[in-house]
Specification:
The chain is an alpha/beta fold. Helices cover 38% and strands 14% of the residues. The chain contains 17 helices and 13 strands. β3 and β4 form a beta hairpin. α1 packs across α7 and α7 packs across α8.
Length: 397
């Protein structure tokens, strides 16, 4: 079962915002013990990213921090740094999102920590990576969408550029970091040694551009901005209907012929302008107009009712509310309950993988700031008196 995959694995999470917390949440969903280390008095920045909020808590924070403990430690204080180093001796995984060099300045770099714990999987998440002229600059999801060229491909020619609305790069970086950590844990079972894993927002953004970069390198031409379409196949985009839009993806000749059958447009099958995918791509604007002569005569639901029986891939254009309430989404179990204080009916998105037909059942609510500080430090061997002294010095919260 997924929730037992990483049972016995201890993770120290020194990250904040989106990418690192998402990585650590995935590990927690898979059964790891995740200790989130936050700043005393303030915690992770996204605790204050509200509205929207649920019971006075940031909805964003609640979506990225389930299955974790929270302790408050000032990592700028020497005693705080020693606490983190002591915890790292007990950990399997250490994740941080400090800018390159910052962990090393605090004696929390890979070489520092592996000296006492050679089996440690150490993951550093950064904006631009650990090398290069921009390595010390901060970075955020939309900023990196701009830098890596993603925004340059969005919208239609003549429109203002716009970002992908979801945190594509942040959450993608969290996924890549998770993959690297899992690879490190697997490698450790064979070698007995830990591993350093590096993940960056820039690398993730460039990675998502793989197909588009390949097209540019092959042709020397910048991609057109095609709205909902793609550059290498057609029809493969949204088409207007009598009451909205329908997405049709007919990526080969067989599917194209089925689409024409479903729409009642047999004349388009043998039209010399559309006989092959390269011709359809070249003549995509004319093809779109021809298809919309048929789709606009019917509602979205009517178009789908005609297309799906032919095997043509198609979809309505859902908004978020429609997606969440769709019977397919409910059947998949992707929206799950996560009761939190003051919101017993709170729901979140589940881990989007299954094992043997089941999702992870780990659903501990995100922690209150510093809720586990004393318990974690006592387990580390600190006495009540030592904890009181550290709290009086504001080293812990």
């Amino acid at each position: 079962m997924l929730e037992k995959t990483l049972t016995g694995v201890r993770v120290l999470d020194l990250t904040q915002n989106v990418a690192g917390p998402y990585c650590a949440q995935i590990l927690g969903d898979l059964g790891a013990e995740v200790i989130k280390i936050e700043r005393p008095g303030r915690g992770d920045d996204i605790r204050d990213w509200r509205p929207p909020e649920v019971g006075g808590q940031s909805a964003t924070f609640l979506s990225l921090n389930r299955n974790k403990k929270s302790i408050c430690v000032d990592i700028d204080a020497p005693d705080g740094q020693r606490l983190i180093a002591d915890l790292a001796r007990t950990a399997d995984v250490f994740i941080h999102s400090m800018k390159p060099g910052s962990a090393e300045q605090r004696a929390l770099g890979y070489d520092d920590l592996r000296a006492a714990n050679p089996k440690l999987i150490y993951c550093a998440i950064s904006a631009f990576g650990q090398v290069g002229p921009l390595k010390n600059l901060p970075g955020y999801d939309p900023l990196m969408q701009a830098f890596t060229g993603i925004i340059s491909t969005l919208g239609r020619d003549g429109d203002d550029p716009s970002r992908v609305s979801v945190s594509l790069i942040d959450m993608g970086t969290g996924m890549w970091a998770t993959l690297g950590i899992m690879a490190g844990l697997m490698s450790r079972t064979q070698s007995g040694h830990g591993m350093r894993v590096d993940a960056s927002l820039m690398d993730t953004g460039i990675g998502w551009m793989t197909v588009i970069v390949a097209g540019f390198l092959a042709s020397g031409k910048l991609p057109r901005r095609l709205g909902s379409g793609v550059g290498m196949t057609a029809p493969y985009e949204l088409f207007r209907t009598a009451d909205g839009h329908v997405f049709i993806a007919a990526g080969n000749n067989r599917m194209y012929a089925r689409m024409c059958e479903g729409l009642g447009a047999p004349e388009l099958v043998d039209d010399e302008r559309f006989l092959t995918n390269p011709l359809r791509v070249t003549n995509r604007d004319v093809l779109r107009a021809e298809i919309e002569k048929h789709t606009t005569k019917r509602t979205t639901a009517e178009n789908i009712a005609l297309l799906r029986p032919t095997g043509t891939p198609c979809s309505e254009l859902n908004n978020v509310a429609q997606m969440v309430e769709h019977e397919q989404v409910k059947a998949a179990g992707m929206i799950v309950s996560l009761p939190v204080s003051a919101a017993a009916e709170h729901k979140v998105v589940a881990l989007p993988i299954k094992a043997n037909g089941a999702r992870s059942t780990n659903m501990a609510p995100p922690p209150e700031l510093g809720a586990d500080t004393d318990a974690v430090l006592k387990a580390l061997g600190r006495s009540d008196a030592e904890i009181a002294t550290l709290r009086a010095a504001k080293t812990i919260g």
